[in-house]
Amino acid sequence: MQHYEPPVLACALNEVLNKIVVGDPSKIPTLLVPFLVESSEVKGNSKSLRSDESGALTYGIQIGQITDIMQTLLKKIQEPPSTLRIQHENFACFRHFVRVMKLPTFFLIGQTSQYLDSKATKQHEAIREIGEILASSTGLQFSEDRVIWNPKKTSKEIKEPWRDLYG
């Protein structure tokens, strides 16, 4: 999936989530949303990820009606401390939409290191951990060797399509 930034992200999320909501309310699926955040974007966490730490920190945040899959995931993943705040615009946008639309959603938050020397390794470790948790809980298969790494482009390389709207 292409990487979008606000406000294009908000428009895309609104369209996709509206397609999910339309129809029989009893058949609305549970959304399982993996999300990576840097440790610098996590506030109120008693434990932050250091560059030399071996494992990725993974939290589960449930929104809306609890479903069977959410209960299964909650048993395998730690709940975040009540003081945890994630300051990431894309995450906040997505969370807002699912709350307003009352969609049962489970966010799997992988916290990665903010240190450049191990950033890619920590992101890959967080992806692997989230993939294994989802695979063991849903009956899906996760193959670490099929994860394709596309590093984020620098701001000079990015063309922001939303700027065309505002001149």
TrEMBL record:
InterPro entries assigned to the protein according to its UniProt record, in alphabetical order: DUF7894
Residue ranges annotated for the DUF7894 domain, each copy included: 1-167
Pfam family, one: DUF7894
UniProt-recorded name of the protein: DUF7894 domain-containing protein
Organism: Trifolium subterraneum (Subterranean clover)
